[in-house]
Design goal:
Elements: H1 2-5, H2 10-33, H3 50-66, H4 78-95, H5 98-102, H6 108-119, H7 135-150, H8 152-159, H9 165-173, H10 184-208, H11 213-224, H12 242-255, H13 259-268, H14 272-276, H15 278-299, H16 305-320, H17 335-347, H18 360-378, E1 388-389, E2 392-393, H19 396-424, H20 428-439, H21 455-469, H22 473-492
Antiparallel strand pairs: 1-2
Helix pairs in contact: 2-3, 2-4, 2-8, 4-6, 4-9, 4-22, 6-7, 6-21, 7-11, 8-10, 10-11, 10-12, 11-12, 15-16, 15-17, 16-17, 17-20, 18-19, 19-20, 19-21, 20-21
């Protein structure tokens, strides 16, 4: 730690971080104002407008003050960007608690849990009897998940932050790397346009299949955003409709697919581009055997074959896309089924998508790395192996980074699982399932997550959601930087 302190320039870091955070907070403030428009449709909820307008304006004004010198920033290092991104997700969740506390009458801890779950696209919830809540609070959860799905920083890039080094660093700090267009801001705008169009398609498909318009909007936003928060306690199971489940599966897979693939599909007007993508191929590679195993285990508890495959298909897709929608009671599932669903939640969806988890490209790369290692040992000395996976070519440094990330991901998963086992006296599979759901930003639950949880467990799961959304490294850099920066500030005083 002492060696790292010499790289911390307190004045420069605070100046850069403060202005970057300020620019993004303005975007959060604007997002806060949108649910207020809903009260003009549901006039009976007009009294709730203050709980959105006041925090929204405060966020805009605070952001404008903090980011007033953003034009003077000439360079941003990755550490400063990571600290900014990690803090913004914490602060966005903090400022978003107001509607939950004053409209839903939830405690601060439960409200912060709900906000973090929404922004990170997780979907674990402290709320029940959802049908009894006002429309505006249900829309607020879905709206945060929709924006959080593509990322707070990406939304800010679309409307606020100018092109340049700061934009590029923030983009990478939020665990994104895809470049559809040469210009990063144009890339953000293309992603946003695709996202918006697919959301409208989802609303239309739900509506023509019998879902009420408000529910169609909510589930399209949280389905494509792979967030999974619903307007009903029974989630998609409330509608008991095969056609609605089919639409949901379509949206979940679209949300978990790299936006570059979407762009090429639209540009080339070719569906084959979708199935050629290496991450899509591996998604189905993992799905097919897992569905068979889950269905088999469900049949063993006397569930009908048709129903077993229906639930196995839906929950498997919900898990690997990190969405969290459900159509059945997972608490009653056999241990094998729970473990396999947890396994898919850990794998996650495609890189460059709205999904969480380790990501399919990393899992694929680890498998290919093993093949390359064996080939290197067999082939003559000096033979060159092209480290290519699909359309992606990887360097040794990138492979090492993937391995480091995966090991760190499993380490956090193990710590959380052990904590839940010891603290709640639940089984290994149930503890693993719940932590995998939080860290993978999924939202499926076997009944462990509820308002009755001890405060320390709620905080633990909240941290797992935050860590998982920023893919660990940004949060670790934030924690280490804060640990080193605070003593420096104290010394200066």
């Amino acid at each position: 730690m002492l060696k790292l302190r010499k790289y911390i320039n307190t004045t420069d870091d605070l100046f850069v971080v403060k202005n970057l955070i300020g620019a993004i907070l303005q975007g959060i403030g604007l997002a806060y104002l949108v649910p207020g428009l809903l009260v003009w449709i549901y006039r009976g909820e007009m009294d709730y407008i203050y709980y959105f307008a006041i925090p929204g304006f405060i966020s805009i004004l605070l952001g404008a003050w903090m980011g007033r010198h953003i034009g003077k920033i000439e360079d941003v290092n990755l550490r400063q960007a990571m600290v900014s991104a990690a803090f913004v997700w914490l602060f966005a969740s903090l400022i978003s608690v107001v509607p939950f506390m004053f409209i839903a009458k939830m405690s601060f801890i439960d409200s912060y849990f709900e906000s973090m779950s929404a922004w990170t696209g997780t979907g674990l919830t402290m709320m029940s009897h959802l049908e009894s809540y006002p429309h505006v609070i249900l829309f607020w959860r879905a709206w945060m998940q929709w924006l959080g799905g593509i990322g707070i920083v990406l939304v800010a890039l679309t409307v606020l932050i100018r092109p340049g080094v700061a934009a590029a660093r923030l983009y990478k700090a939020e665990a994104r790397s895809e470049r559809i267009m040469p210009n990063l801001v144009n890339t953000a705008k293309v992603i946003f346009e695709i996202y918006f169009l697919l959301t409208l398609v989802g609303v239309y498909l739900y509506y023509i299949n019998g879902m009420p318009l408000f529910d169609a909007l909510i589930h399209s936003m949280t389905g494509l955003g792979t967030g999974g928060m619903s307007s009903h306690d029974l989630s998609i199971g409330y509608f008991n409709s095969l056609s609605i489940e089919a639409v949901t599966i379509f949206l979940m897979i679209m949300g978990a697919t790299n936006f570059t693939v979407h762009y090429r599909m639209f540009k080339e007007r070719s569906l084959s581009r979708f199935f050629k993508d290496i991450q899509v191929k591996y998604m189905f590679f993992f799905l097919v055997p897992t569905i068979i195993l889950i269905a088999y285990s469900l049949i063993q508890i006397n569930m009908g074959v048709g129903r077993a495959f229906r639930e196995a298909i839906f929950h498997s897709v919900s898990a690997i896309t990190c969405t969290g929608f459900g159509i059945g009671n997972l608490n009653k599932y056999p241990e094998l089924a729970k473990f396999m669903i947890g396994f898919l939640m850990v794998i996650g969806g495609g890189a460059g998508s709205t999904a969480g988890g380790i990501k399919l490209i990393r899992v694929t790369l680890m498998y290919e790395s093993l093949k390359w290692t064996i080939e290197q040992a067999i082939l003559p000395k000096g033979a060159i192996i092209k480290r290519k996976v699909g359309d992606y070519i990887f360097s040794d440094e990138e492979i090492q980074e993937v391995l480091s990330f995966t090991m760190t991901y499993f380490a956090f998963l193990l710590i959380g699982t052990i904590w839940l086992m010891l603290r709640l006296r639940v089984s290994l599979v149930n503890a693993f399932f719940e932590v995998a759901s939080a860290q993978g930003n999924v939202g499926l639950s076997v009944g462990v997550t509820s308002p009755s949880l001890p405060i320390d467990v709620k905080i633990l799961l909240t941290l797992h959601m935050w860590i998982g959304r920023l893919e660990i490294f940004s949060t670790l850099v934030f924690i280490v930087s804060a640990f080193l920066l605070v003593p420096r500030l104290v010394e200066r005083k």
